[in-house]
Design a protein that fits this description.
Length: about 500
């Protein structure tokens, strides 16, 4: 107990300058500044010298410079109340800003989300928002572990009871802390759409792809909440829980349509062209808001492109996508992805990209590769992923001692953050590298998600451009590659 009290006192003392700044800012606001807000704070262990505040819908994007004490303060005139995104060192989080707010943040980049605290006028709604975000993340992870064990009726009762409790807690909060309709709507959406998403995910996890046809056997009323779905909630377009729900919802609707159009015993294939075209058609028919619609269309198309090995099918889906989106930059981006993937076909040499080791020596990837090698990627912003991926590779090194393993960090911030991480976790420095030009490298290698792994032979020719080392059958897949491609002998 004594330790906790000491930490609490230190925390309050550390926050005093921020609280004073926020109170002072509020007192200095004149009546003519009623549409003004203040946003500022302190970044502990910063991964750069700036914070980016933006909202793509109202086309706001401001760069806020950190001072020598790693603090920043920003006055926003003519504020449009909305959910804004703030970005630092490759990580993002949200803040609700409304007129007369004076919101200050304090966070430590080593635990970006968990350490985030808001103070000042407008802080209570934002602290509750981050609380629901962290609850969503924690509970969703726990649910995934047990989701396959729960029968449909048991699962439905569990989610419904959890949902109602979260809403009751929120009503209690609002009685003590009156907030605006905007803030209330955003926080409730964060609660609602996470619970709704779990129900959309359920049939894929419980039945699996081989028995997904049984989606029709779910209890009556399982998806009654869909009547409440707003496909065009403009004020939620920046919210992760809302976008995540729509992604899973579209997948689920398309799966139902799949079994309406195919025989009962048809094996479901999430990478089938017809299924993915169906997803784009559903988005086109259900979503009218341009930003929300373009966002879902882009991600669903990119998902297919990343996993397809059939160029004709990729072209067909791209034609369908291009006819539905209004974002020309997204079209260009996906065409670049297709071009990059075409250069990563099995048998082709890996592009000649520069990497840097922990001693600041430069090499091409081909210089590093001396034997058949598994190349994987990680970011200092994704702690769980980089710990799991390195642990998984340790297992694979024991099982496949004849293979090489190359770890490449993708961050574009100063290399001290990368070096701190690899030394802190005692990663094998002989295998650790970072890209010299991360943006160029990620585009060239089509690394749009961290689970992508590339396998090359001893001459850095591509054996497989995209595998997932966390898949259950990966070890058998690698053994099969070794046998069929004579990987180890090359």
């Amino acid at each position: 107990m004594l330790t906790k009290k000491v930490h609490s006192i230190k925390f309050v003392i550390a926050l005093l300058p921020l609280v004073f700044l926020s109170v002072t800012a509020c007192k200095n606001m004149s009546i003519s500044e009623a549409d003004t807000a203040y946003f500022g704070g302190e970044i502990i262990n910063p991964k750069g010298d700036k914070v980016i505040l933006y909202n793509r819908r109202i086309q706001v994007s401001d760069t806020l410079q950190l001072d020598k004490n790693n603090r920043f303060s920003y006055k926003i005139s003519n504020l449009e109340p909305a959910v804004y995104t703030f970005w630092h060192g490759g990580e993002i989080q949200f803040v609700i800003l409304e007129p007369n707010d004076s919101v200050m943040i304090r966070l430590n980049t080593y635990e970006f989300d968990k350490s985030l605290v808001f103070t000042g006028e407008g802080s209570k709604k934002n602290n509750y928002l981050i609380k629901t975000f962290l609850n969503n993340d924690k509970k969703s992870k726990n649910l995934v572990k047990n989701i396959q064990k729960k029968e449909p009726e048991e699962f439905e009762a569990y989610v419904n009871n959890r949902h109602q409790k979260e809403l009751r807690d929120f009503e209690n909060f609002k009685r003590k802390n009156p907030i605006s309709q905007l803030a209330s709507s955003v926080i409730q959406a964060n609660i609602d759409y996470r619970n709704y998403a779990d129900k959309e995910i359920y049939p894929f996890a419980y039945f699996g792809e081989n028995k997904l046809v049984h989606i029709k056997d779910l209890p009556d009323g399982f998806y009654d909440f869909r009547k409440e779905i707003d496909y065009n909630a403009t004020h939620l377009s920046e919210i992760f829980a809302y976008n995540r729900y729509l992604f899973f919802h579209i997948d689920n609707l398309a799966a139902t349509k799949y079994y309406n159009d195919n025989t009962f015993h048809s094996k479901f294939n999430r990478h089938q062209l017809a299924y993915n075209k169906s997803k784009l058609n559903l988005v086109d028919s259900l979503v009218k808001d341009e930003i929300i619609k373009n966002n879902i269309l882009k991600y669903k198309t990119r998902e297919f492109i990343n996993h397809s090995r059939n160029q004709d099918e990729v072209n067909e889906l791209m034609a369908s996508y291009a006819a539905k989106t209004t974002n020309e930059e997204d079209i260009k981006s996906l065409n670049k992805l297709i071009s990059s993937l075409n250069n990563l076909k099995p048998g082709k040499g890996l592009p000649d990209l520069l990497v840097i080791d922990s001693k600041n020596q430069e090499y091409t990837i081909a210089d590093v590769v001396k034997k058949p090698t598994l190349i994987y990627f990680w970011s200092t912003n994704e702690k769980k992923h980089y710990k799991n991926s390195h642990y998984r590779v340790k297992e694979l090194q024991v099982l496949f001692p004849e293979m090489g393993f190359m770890s490449i960090n993708i961050n574009d911030n100063p290399d001290k953050f990368w070096k701190e991480t690899i030394h802190q976790y005692k990663f094998n420095l002989d295998n650790e590298y970072r890209f010299k030009n991360p943006k160029e490298a990620l585009e060239t290698l089509a690394v749009s998600y961290l689970y992508k792994v590339i396998i090359v032979d001893s001459k850095a020719n591509i054996i497989h451009p995209n595998v997932n080392i966390f898949n259950e059958d990966f070890e058998n897949t690698l053994k099969d590659m070794i046998q069929k491609k004579e990987l180890i002998l090359k």
